[in-house]
Each structure stands twice: as C-alpha cells, then as structure tokens.
Amino acid sequence: MIGAVARKLFGSANERRIRSYLPRVGEINALEKELEALSDDALKARTVDFKKQAADGTSLDDLLVPAFATVREAAKRTLGQRHFDVQLIGGMILHDGKIAEMKTGEGKTLVATLPVYLNAISGRGVHVVTVNDYLAKRDADWMGQIYNFLGLSVGVIVHGLDDEQRKKAYDCDITYGTNNELGFDYLRDNMKYRLEDMVQRGHIYAIVDEVDSILVDEARTPLIISGPLDDRSEFYNTIDGYIPQLDKTDYEVDEKQRTVTLTEAGMEKLEQRLRAAGQLKGDSLYDVENVSVVHHVNQALRAHKLFQRDKDYIVRNGEVVIIDEFTGRMMPGRRYSEGLHQALEAKEHQPIQPENQTLASITFQNYFRMYEKLAGMTGTALTEADEFMDIYGLEVLEVPTNMPLVRLDDDDEVYRTATSRAGSSTISPIPMRSPRSIRATTAPPRPRCSPSSMPGITSRKPTLFHKPACPARSRLPPTWPGAGPTFSLAAMPTCASARKLPISRIRASARKVHAPTRFASRLRG
Ligand SMILES: Nc1ncnc2c1ncn2[C@@H]1O[C@H](COP(=O)(O)OP(=O)(O)OP(=O)(O)O)[C@@H](O)[C@H]1O
Ligand SMILES: [Mg+2]
Fold it and tell me: In this predicted structure, what is the pLDDT of residue 215?
C-alpha cells in the first residue's frame, strides 16, 4: 500500500533511474545546432581530439555528452537517421555496463553506436556480440558507415576466417562477432605457444545483443576444443589378446550396472601375463603406473562379456556402429568414451581410431565474465533481471518506447494438452502483417490466429504476435517470409520452439505483467 503511494508520488525505481539520464540528454540536444554547422572533416576531427583528451586523462564519462552528440550528427549524415532521445538513454545505460531493455524495433542496433564509439576512443577495443554471422556482418556494414565516417576502424569476425584475418579484425577499434566465434577464438588463443600468434588483444568492453539468449539461455553451453590422442592401436590389441586367456573365475559381471571387474585370481593371472610380456611397470599391477592398464583391461572385458555384436553394435565398413538400445537405430558417428569403443574395435579386429580428449573448454557465462565492462540489450530482459544480477552483476533498465506502443504484447500461455488448448478459443487463421509494416500504422486491427498452427504453446487471446520480442524472428534475414506485406503465423518460429525456452522461463514470462508505461508518455510529453 505504502509502496503504491510512494510509486505514485516518486515513480517506480526504473522511472527514477531513467529520469536521472535526462539532464545529459538535454546537454546532447543543446550541442546539435553547433555540430550541424561543422563540415564533415571538422566532425571527423573531433574523434582525434577525443582520443587526445582520453590519452591526457579525461574520463570517458566526461566525454560522453560531446561524443554522443558527434555520433548522432554522423548518423544523420551517413544513414539519415537521428538518434531519438530514448535511444540516447539506451546508449548511456549500455555505457554504464547495464542491460537496456528496449522493445523490438526500437533501433537497438543504432543505440549501440553511441557507447561503442565512446568506448572505442580509449583504443583498447570494443566487441559487439550478435547471435549469428548474418547479424554480425549486417550490423558491422550498416553501422560501420558511422564509425568509418568518424575515422574509426571496424572489423567483423565470422565463420571461416584464418588467423591473420581474425587478428586484423580484433585489432580494429570496433569488432562485431558472434558469441561462438569470440569464445572459440579465446580457446584457440589459449592453446597457442607464442603471444604474437594470439588473435584477441583483451576483453575490455562488450555489448551483447539479444543478451537474454546469450547470457541466460546459453549461459552454461560449453565450448569445447578436442583433439585426438596418440595412436595406441598396438596397446588395445595387446590388451584384447589377454581376454580369451581369462576364465569365469577371473572376473565378475554385473549386468545391472553394466560393469565387469577382475577378481583377485584374475588380477594375479593378468599380472603374471603382463610381467612375462614385459608390459608391467613396477612390481605390481596395483602400482599407480599400471592404473591405465587395469582400466583398459576392464574396458576390454566389458567389450567381450557385456556387448553383443548385432545387438548392441554392428560392424559396417570397418567401423563399429552403436545401436541405440531404446530405438534400435544405428548411431553412426557416435562413439563410446574412455577407450570402450577402441576395445570393441580391437575385439572385432577392425581398424582402431584414436581417442579424443578435451583440450580446452569454457562456458559462455565464464567467457563473458572476463570482460572488464559488460553491457547488453534485448527486447525481453526484465523477466530474467534476478539472474542477470546474480550471475553477472548486471542491472536491467527498461527504456520507454519512442512512440506510444500500439502493438499488443500478450503474455505466453502454456497448455498441458492439445485438447485443453483447442478448447480455449475458436479462432480462425487470417493473414498477418509484418512487424515493420504494423509499426507504421496508427491503429492496427486485432488480427486472429490459428491455435492449431503452434504446437504446444499458443496464446488464448487473439494476438498480433505470439511474443513480439522473439529474437529468433529478429535474426532472420530481410528475405524471410515475414518481410513481405502479409504472412501467416504458421510461418513464424515461436520463441519457445526456436530458442528451446525452458519451461521455467515460459512460466516466468507468463507471470510478467505488461503495465502500460505511463512514464513513457510523460517523458515524451
Ligand atoms: N533513430 C531512428 N530513426 C529512423 N529509423 C530508425 C531509428 N532507429 C532505428 N530505426 C530503424 O528501425 C528499424 C529497426 O531497428 P533495429 O533492427 O535496430 O531494431 P531492434 O531494436 O534491434 O529490433 P529487434 O529487437 O527486432 O532486434 C530499422 O529499420 C532502423 O533503421
Ligand atoms: Mg536487433
């Protein structure tokens, strides 16, 4: 109750935070006339001047107002787009190392240019992270016009570049790239022996686009570089040769646990054989040096005593192919780990392929926590605000839209069965317009959609979009079906299916209440 009254009087915490940025918006606007009068060369020269000031000790915060004003003027001259006031606020949030939640289509790509330019002035490298190669290239080319105009270099890291090209891109003032590429470059750099071979030059400041997708949904995804171990075919064949020499008293089979272990008698017999063959290191089989031998004997025993040819696996074209025990299907390319597959290959007298080992591994969470300053932008972050704060110490601020939002952002609704979903409404499919064309209209009609077009998850109320800020949709290139004048909902990927949204997040977003942002109109008014 008291909270509600306080909110009415002073506004919500988010409103207060956003309001604190307004004085600087006013200062940037005040510089506009002066900058408009400058020639292109004089505008460009401001970058050199900012760099000098930064080198002389002026903080980036002190350069924010003139730098943002410069970027806005450059955007007007190159792209014909003038950053809206709310976009300036978004830019300041990103510069502060926070997450700016801005609705889809609010121009986050352009917003990023402000903090990117400001932080690039330090010359230590700024990374802009996107979810796919297409967006990295598109944004680097598109926004690169502004940076190049102002005399900054832009590089892009996409799949298929060699080390030299990567190094060149990382050495630029600004580098666009995908989370995968940046993460793998870090891992590969860690496996290099010489400093000069490394392609990255530090992790200073990163702005992550679609931040919820990269820093929450994929946070724990490990990036792994693996490599083959030395060829040890001879070793596997030798071990395999001992198995027929063992009798039933030498080992115990546990069908339930799917393990086979040597008995005392078996151990002794094996020890004798290994000693006779000169393969025993030290005095006893129990010495540390022989741990690997015992392990591989156990694997060979499993291969012989538990795994049946044409039931658990088949042999085809010199390869041992696993059969899925549940579906009965072959699983070509899949291999048992820890030497078991090699033991099967030895048993079947097939060529033995080398084992793989993990050489380097990192999760996205750990990679992005290395940056000195991290910021992010997305259409939907508030639902994960706690996770962002707990894991990354990132605060989420909701930036009001530039114009009143006419789009209806209904919440996700989850049904347990198709029947309960079908019974929830009687709605028939009609063509829908694309997000961009809807934005241009003032009063869009309330379209209807077919619940049967969305497997599992749909909206009970007829909605304009299933979830407007779905990153999967915004990742599509301009030629996607929705870019035309009409498209059907069935053609669009749903947030949940496209991003494999865990059910907890669907519930979280279903709980989210979209209150009309009165503050937005106050800001505009
Ligand atoms: N200040 C501006 N003036 C004119 N057009 C703008 C401005 N800012 C952005 N736009 C245009 O709005 C469109 C949407 O921009 P953008 O794709 O960057 O949005 P977004 O917020 O990243 O959306 P999504 O959440 O779907 O990724 C683009 O065509 C862009 O050119
Ligand atoms: Mg975007």
Answer: 93
